[in-house]
């Protein structure tokens, strides 16, 4: 978090692909080059088993890239995601678009670049980009030029429009969990149903 404190507001792209999604070494290299080529500072949380190839997990790349990245960003093994997304320095999130990450990003008011891999991630990514308009959908494309283009769009040319949408979604999310909000009422109703046994 100390590194984020030294960055300008909304200037950093946070990158994390969750706890299950994996990528090949080539995909990883394309993402890294795209991030570096974008010229935008980034914080990338890379768990040890993210990168796999024909020989199984490959964790040596983390040390290699840590050495090559200091002028452009920061690579860490883990980051407190909700705290990172809430930080003023973070202006966007490159994600696998898992449901928890999607909700955390929307609640924090941060636009997303989605690279979905499995399960519900394709649907989540489509909702983020086409329904809620709070991010961009990379689909399954993993080329450095595409990564660079999308990062620049998120952090520069499309920033204002995406921020308007994400800030509105974040406002609605906060209202829903306040006392009297829709989520608050639904939780109270669930608790009441459990107490009286009407949920059976």
Q: Helical percent range? A: 40-55%
Query: Mean pLDDT, rounded to whole units?
Result: 87
Name the CATH superfamily classification: Glycogen Phosphorylase B
Q: Structural class of the helices, strands and pairings?
A: alpha/beta
Oligomer: single chain
How many beta strands in the DSSP annotation?
8
How does this structure look, described?
The protein has 200 residues and is an alpha/beta fold. The protein has helices at 2-5, 25-38, 60-68, 81-86, 99-108, 121-131, 144-157, 159-177, 182-196, and strands spanning 12-16, 42-45, 52-53, 56-57, 73-76, 90-95, 112-114, 135-137. The strands form 2 sheets. Strands 5-2-1-6-7-8 form a 6-stranded parallel β-sheet, sandwiched between helices. It comes from Striga hermonthica. InterPro entries: UDP_glucos_trans (IPR002213), UDP_glycos_trans_CS (IPR035595).
Please describe the topology of this protein.
Elements: H1 2-5, E1 12-16, H2 25-38, E2 42-45, E3 52-53, E4 56-57, H3 60-68, E5 73-76, H4 81-86, E6 90-95, H5 99-108, E7 112-114, H6 121-131, E8 135-137, H7 144-157, H8 159-177, H9 182-196
Parallel strand pairs: 1-2, 1-6, 2-5, 6-7, 7-8
Antiparallel strand pairs: 3-4
Helix pairs in contact: 2-7
Key words describing this protein structure:
200 residues; alpha/beta; Rossmann fold; 6-stranded parallel beta sheet; 9 helices; 51% helix; 14% strand; globular
